[in-house]
Amino acid sequence: SYDKALTQKNSLEIFYEKQAQFNALDYPADNPPHYFYEYTWHTVFATYQYPDLPAVAAVILLAALVFCPEYAGRTVATILTTKNGRGATFAAKYTVFIGATLFLGLACCLAEYIGYQAKFALMEPDTPLYSLSIFSDLPLPVSVMEGWRAVLSIRLAGLLLFGLFILSLSVFMQKAAYTFFLAAGLLILPFLFSGILPTYQAFTFFGMLSGNLFLYFFQACRAAAFWALPLLFSSLLVALALFWACRRYAYSRRPY
Questions:
Q1: Disulfide: which of 33, 57, 87, 99 matches 131 by Cβ 3.0-4.6 Å?
Q2: What is each CA distance from 184 to 57, 166, 181, 233, in whole angstroms?
Q3: In this predicted model, what pLDDT tens digit does every residue of 156-189 receive, in sequence order?
């Protein structure tokens, strides 16, 4: 029938496109790319172009509810006069926040991992990641399953670092509304430069929260030694914000 012939024609066109793609690039001889039904895996990775907005919103809300109510109620000075107000209490709040964020992030990752496995029946998990068209130029010797786990791990790390950064900045903002606007600005800003500097979006929290941008950055720089640079950059920002937040909170001015 016409439909069957059209399906075969499209299949042949896709096959020849993949063959031309594989021939144009230099892949490891001991682990060449595979011809396989990639569209289920393509759908999975395509969902990681953007952050998990419900999880990010929950973390922002949680960060705004730690210190901002103390400033709104003018109880900071009273807390600082207690025995453990300047050190242990501050550290305890960060510890609880880290635990809550990790729990939320792990729950989201586990739900996605189980949900996509059940929905798409993902097959051939040992296929090299560069067999996918979107990662055809990615010189990373991992399978599609390992790449998926790496993306989930990056998103979890990004959620934690972003949450810690917003929590630290909330000490300076002192108001929940300001904290919400600042967090939204940090997420929206990379969209303004998406067409200009797509590679360097990996250095933003948006890049870590999406996951795929890290793989694209690795694909662009083509060097494993540079892959950790966005993570180190974000970690440095968080460490600096945490340091100044600790000093700012410990020496908060008392209300008259």
A1: 33
A2: 9, 10, 5, 20
A3: 998 999 999 999 898 888 888 888 988 888 888 7
